[in-house]
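Reference record:
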Amino acid sequence: MQLNKQMLIAGAVLALGLGAGAARAQPVDTARIVAGSPNDWLTYHGSYKGWDYSALDQINADNVKDLSVAWIHVPGHSTRGLQSMPLVADGVLYYTGSYSRVFALDGATGNLMWSYFPELDDALVARQTHSPYNRGLAMGEGKVYVGTVDGRLIALDMKTGKVAWDTKLQDSQKLTVGFTGAPLYAKGTVVIGSQGGEWPGRGPLYGVDAATGKVKWTFNTVAPDEESKKSWGNDSWRTGGGGGWMPGTYDMASNTVYWGTANPAPLYDWSNADWKTTGARPGDNLYTTSVLALDLDSGKLKSYHQELPHDTWDFDSAPGEFVMISRNGQDYIVHPNKSGFIFVYDKDLKVENVYPLVKNYNFVKGIDPKTGALIGRRDFAAGHQSEPLCPAIDGGVSWNSGSYSPKTGLYYKIGNEWCIDLEVVKTTPVTQPVVQLNIGANFHEVAPPGDQIYGHLDARDPLTGAKKWEVRFPEPPMASVLSTGGNLVFVPDSRGTLHAYNAETGAELWNHSDGTGHQGGIISYSAGGKQYVAVVAGFGGMVSDGFAAMFGEPYKSMPRDDGLLVVYSLK
C-alpha cells in the first residue's frame, strides 16, 4: 500500500507539471467520444464507429522509414503477456496489465503518473483458465473503468488513480468467471460482459451507473425470457454459457448498445444432425453466438441476429468488433464472427451480406448472403471425427481488431488458416452453475488438408468483401490492426515484429522488432504536437500458449510472463 501512495504523490506532482494543457482539457463524455479527435483514443476501438483508425498523418508513407522507439514502459508481473488496448485523453495514456493493473503515463515521455493494483483472490485466480490477462478499460466522467478476473468492476479517478467505487458483479467463487475484456462507457452507463462461453452459467451483460457503481440492469445472454428458454431443451438454459467477453459499441442516435455473445455450453455437442431435439442442449440456444441490440438505459432487447444457431464449433460472435459505415445514404454494421465469416447488417441487425474472410472452412458449405442462413452445416456424433474441423477453435478470426480507413474505403482484417483434429466426448450433464469448464471434446490444432497453418492481412471492401490485396504471415497474427491518415496500416505480428504497410498497395515500408510476440492493441495519438504509435507486446494466453508446439522457434524460446508497452515517434 505504501508503494501505491508514493506513486499517487508522484503522479500528482507530474500532473501539475503538465500545466495548462490539463486545465484546458474537456471532460470525456459521450458527446466528446462521438465528436472524436485524432489527438486522443477515447474508447476501445478509438471511437464508437469501431474503425481502429487514426486520422493523424504526421507519420506517413513517405517518412515512416524514420520511425523509432520514443519510450518504453515495463509494467512488471505480466503473467501470460499483455493483451490491453491503450486509451489516451489529453496527452495521458492509460493501459492495463495482467491482474487488471492500471497505469497512467505521460504520453510524451512515458513517465508514470499513477498506477493501481487491485487486491485479488490469488487462489481464485490460480483456478481460472482465462486468466489473469486483461484486454483494456473504458473512460468517461473523470474516471477510468476496469473489470477484474474475480468479477468486479472498478472506477478510478483519471487524475489520481484513487478508487471511486468498486462493485462486485459476478459470483466468481462459484463459476471462476470474471472479466477479461474491456468495458464500454456511454451516456452515464458502463456496460461489461463476462468472460468465456464454456462455463455453465448464463453469460450476463451488466449496465452499471458510471457515477455510483450501482447496477442499473442485467441482461442474461442465455434465455432471458420464457420464450427464449424454449430454445434450450431439457432445461439446459440453466447452464448455457454465452458470455459477452469483448466490448461492443454504442449508437447515440438510437441509444443502442450493440454486443456480441459467446458459444453455448457444453462447447461441443454430440447430437449430430438431430440437434433440434437431442444431445446436450437441444434447440437453437438463444441468445448464444448472436449479435444483440440493447437499449442503453434499460438493457431491454431491441433486436438480434443469431449468427450460428446451436453453435457446436466455438465460433463466437463475441469478438467485439462492430464497424459502422455509411454508404449511399444507408448505414451498415460490419461484424466478424470467429468462424471467419464477415456479417454485414443494417442498424436493426437485418442481414445485408455475408462473406468469408478465410479460405479453409468446412463447418458449413456456406452462409446465405441474403438471409444469413447456414447452408450444409456439419454437426458431430460422439467419437473421433474423420475429417479435421476448419477453422480451428482459435478462430478464422480472433478477438484482435481489424481496422477501417475512411481515406481508402478499405477494411484491413487478419484471417487465420488452421484446423483442429477433434474427438467429441459425451460429458456428464450439468444441472446448475458450478466451478468447471464444460467443453465436451479433446482437440489439437492441425494444418488444413493439403495446406499449412498461416495468417493473412486482407484489404477488402467492407460491405462486399472484394479483396484488393493480401499480405501473408508464416503464423497467425494475434494482435490488432491500425490504419492511419498517413496512408499506413500497422500490423504487430506474433514473432514480435511491428510492420507498416502502404494502405493502398500493401507494400511493406518499415518494420521493427519489439523483442517478444504481440497479442494486444495498437493505437496512435498526439501529445505536445507530436504523433505517437503505441503497441503492447508480451506473449502467452489461451491461443498463443500453443504456438511453441505448433511452430517451434522463436516461440519455444519466447518468454510467457513478461510484457512491455513500446511507443514510437519520428526521429
